[in-house]
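To whoever is on call:

I kicked off a structure prediction for a single chain this morning and the downstream step that reads the tokens threw a length-mismatch warning. I double-checked the sequence; it's 677 residues and nothing unusual in it as far as I can see. Pasting both halves so you can look.
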Amino acid sequence: MDKEHRQKMNGHKLEHWQIMAICLMICDFATIHLSYFLALWIRFDCVYSAIPQGYLQPYQCFITPYSIGAIILFWFFRMYRSMWRYASYSELTKTFSGSVTASIIHMILISGLYGRMPLSYYLWGSGMQLILLLVPRFSYRLLLFLRAGLGHTDDTSNRVMIIGAGRHGQMILRDLTTAKELNDKAVCFIDDNPNKWGRFVEGVPIVGGRDDILVNVQKYKVDKIFLAIPKASAEDRKEIIGICNETGCEIKTLPAMFQFVLGQLTVSAMKDVSVEDLLGREPIRADMTEVFNFINEKVVLVTGGGGSIGSELCRQVAAHNPKQLIIFDVYENNTYAIQLELRHKYPELDLVVLIGSVRDSRRMFEVFDEYRPQIVYHAAAHKHVPLMEDSPNEAIKNNAIGTYKTAYAAMVHDCERFVLISTDKAVNPLNIMGASKRLCEMIIQSFDAKIKAGQADQIPQLFTHMGSENADKDGTGEIFRNTRTEFVAVRFGNVLGSNGSVIPIFKRQIEEGGPVTVTHPDIIRYFMTIKEAVSLVMLAGTYAHGGEIFVLDMGSPVRIDTLARNLIKLSGYKPDVDIKIVYTGLRPGEKLYEEKLMAEEGLRKTDNDLIHIGCPIPFDTDEFLKQLDGLMTAAYSNKKNIRELVAAMVSTYHPEMAPAAEAKGSKYAAMVVGEDQ
């Protein structure tokens, strides 16, 4: 039987709720007849023969049409469309309103058509009608409640503590009580409101506040903890989750959307507690109005657009109505993925996806020649510290020289704004990756200084070939006279969920049974989600006047050891008991502490409290640009002394201090696997 034929056959079958509605209508039909008959019967001492024909005959003539009309009325009150296993105050209100309305109509019509009936007929009839309408509707819910209350739940069921005895907690309890497929049973509530303590929610006791979690987990032998507190502050959530972590119970929480959306909530809608819940701060929600005005109807180029930061930049740019979005990356797999995503989500978007390397100046000139981007977000970079320590020349080629070539192409093609994505690892770097990003910042500062001084023609064009795309082809320097590109850098810390992040590494190690590897018990990092970081990067780009290094407020730092232990606890294991934590020791180029600013830099405010401007460290721009040419030659020659050459250019780079710092465990120690440690 083909699919179309089956669908036609199924079209003639009634849905389960429709069958239940028909049964309920039949029940209501009988209920209404019985209610008003009993009213007459009781009025005349429960003797049928004593009922006068003057009352019995009007009842017999009127009751059937009235019952049909009442059922139609009840349909309009939506009394046949509710899910009665979840019957609550809303269903009670509907039933009460429908029954009272029908009773009033009954009283008016029977009195007008047949004369006045006994007063008790109206009162008893309407009262019993309401009661008999409610009984079948709430009996299923009542039976489920009694079943749970009498302990008929399977002894093997999970015992659940619900934190939050408000509306969401009650909805979770209701689903636990009524859902046959769940093997969970609520045994107690926790709520910080003392007025609720000692009281019950549908038979489940509210046993205390957050300070009583540990003792009641033992008392009630709790297996799972459900957090039904979507409106709690991030700091309160962090504290409560921290307490719950000490219990060894499985922890679930509500998705953030339930803070804003009301409706039927089920246990299946709950999710595992995420690492973001442990950061202890509210999500950063930037006002993107200025970004919209800045990007609207402009051609935007994102280099490294397939990476974690680059792809999120592409998503947010696409959402702000650009004239054209150009994604540029050397790695085709991730680039193809973001291309498919954006074409599906924004079918009207003028999207161009290009493959190439920022190290290839001919390719960059070709891209800028053809598409003339007005805004460039330069996210292309090698970011993994240990890998770059093993291949330092590649860090210089891709990060420093790649940034230089892209910036030069932007300058000579009338780009309006060039935004470099930098990192807090550029601050007092002990590793070559951080030093290469500091070089990128210095390149941006040099370009800005030369342009503002009217000396753009003095910026050398670096080649690793014959230079067929020479900017000043006619030798007049005319191309540099109207240069107006504003170059800025945005510096921030580690991003949760980015490529190379330590979080998925920890999760994989936990899934494999451990051990979880942390380089040092005291290592700390600043964290931000990808969306938060990219929103602030874009917003900072709108504040630019050229030459600034914007610094994003990353909040309070997080100890990586604590993060690893919390992840183990969230997975239902005990650190150092079920899952071992092994300290592997700091590696060359790794820091214990990341700094957002250099000691020599000051800090200026912007209109946004989350975005600051670091005052640049002065350096000789002309000398720096001369040294860059030699640095490029050395990098492409794969010289062994590349670190010494970089140290001569970046005064804050001290690679020789890393071994000593590692031994002493000092501030200048080093950085961990991936971006986040």
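Update from on-call: the warning came from a stale cache, not from the record. Cleared it. Sanity check on the structure: The CA atoms of residues 3 and 9 lie 10 Å apart.
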